[in-house]
Sequence to fold (325 residues):
Amino acid sequence: MKWLITGGCGFIGTGLIRELLAEGGHSVRVFDSLLVGSRDDLSLVAEFTEGDGAAPGAMKDSGVELIVGDICDADACLGAVEGADVILHLAANTGVGPSVEDPRLDCVTNVMGTFNMLEAARTHGVGRFIFASSGAPLGEVVPPIHEEMAPHPVSPYGASKLAGEAYCSAYKRTFRIDTVALRFGNVYGPGSVHKASVVAKFIKLALDGKPWEIYGTGGQTRDFIYLGDLLNAVRLAATKDGVGGEAFQIATNRETTVLEVAEMLADTMEEAGHPRPTITHGEKRLGDVDRNFSDTTKARERLGWTPKMELKEGLRKTVAFFTEK
Fold:
């Protein structure tokens, strides 16, 4: 397959590229602004060429190509997509905190950026479009969250991802593009050097000898999904028949408090020979929901997907990656 991956220099994108190259038979074009991921990050997983962002032409039949461009630039999106079989749309303004600080930027990047990519897919006849969403569109509901719940986003980030899901639904039903929205849980794992979410953030702080600050009591819950399991879901979403226009919760169906994962991670850091970090508590963040974990029944039944990695072992693998790096 010919894959166009927006934000492909980031954590999830480079992880997928590594898998695709190991399997063989795929070509990849990365479309990335390089505001978070970098050429160096991409070079760790693949040898690549860099194309002309103004006129990239059709995708090649093999290899990895980088096109530097912004999803907010409609013309750049249109050029980047030519020749793709499937688009994996990862590029976004991510996280609740940044969306609260600058809701306009969050809207323009996540809503118009997704619209631009869908329009490019429609123009070039791309058959499959995978949208990286999250549980944030559902807002403050009693978990486990599932696909039939009515969305009531709490944060601007949740609102922007809900808008993206809505456009995906419209482009399936109006233009017959097989869009698939994957609502990722809290993704962690090796390679997450630029992530600001709890696991990667705490490991980096610990290696710098700094304390960990938990927002609020730490009783808020999340559903932590290992990168390898998530990539399996992405691969299935790209190839499974009969899932166009659908949304899927991609998580573990396990509820873990932030304090529990912090304590588990502190144990893992000690086992790896690092000093045990000090844990402090700050104010609860605006826009954060108290409980969040997913019912993954639909993903199991429709995609044939189940997560495999236990949290403790996944944390060990992640700490080992950061320690070696």
About this structure: DSSP finds eleven helices and 14 strands in the chain. The mean pLDDT is 96. The longest strand covers residues 128-134. Residues 103-124 form the longest helix (22 residues).
